[in-house]
Amino acid sequence: xxxxxxxxxxxxxxxxxxxxxxxxxxxxxxxxxxxxxxxxxxxxxxxxxxxxxxxxxxxxxxxxxxxxxxxxxxxxxxxxxxxxxxxxxxxxxxxxxxxxxxxxxxxxxxxxxxxxxxxxxxxxxxxxxxxxxxxxxxxxxxxxxxxxxxxxxxxxxxxxxxxxxxxxxxxxxxxxxxxxxxxxxxxxxxxxxxxxxxxxxxxxxxxxxxxxxxxxxxxxxxxxxxxxxxxxx
Length: 233
Hints:
Helix content is 42%, strand content 11%.
């Protein structure tokens, strides 16, 4: 089955997943995470992509971004991926591919799902039982968004800024969101829609994206189409 082309129109938030090939390790040491963050910051600025949240696990990466130019996400990910692969192969005396083909992505409706995706991403190390609290994981934007650590990479989204009238109030209200886990239907939707390249939002949002891009972002209905079997003469 042909894969849907990835779309990233300007000013629409997007959730990105980049996995290591065959789930292999793509970050083996602290220096690797640090190098990736430096180059992500460089290319995000170069291609006008605002990065709101991230988590870097040992064998995959999640990013929550808003491109300010159409096509800028692909340029950022291509430049970042190639540079990091050169670094990683040199660092560990290896050759060949590192990433699992194309990155996965999902457009996000801001008012309904954006903060849920923030939470889903930054709770990744907790779901993986690497830490008990998201604040204990170093390679995540939670320390920036919830705890106030400084970062050249992070650009707060307007939905995040709306959590409070000042930074202290925003961080407090943001931490409150993490008192419950992402599970059930919401977890299934975020994972499934991202892996399939579909939009995460209500029907009106999906219809607007399809009208804007000319691409399908809704799941096809299961089963054969109505009237597929004609009666014989």
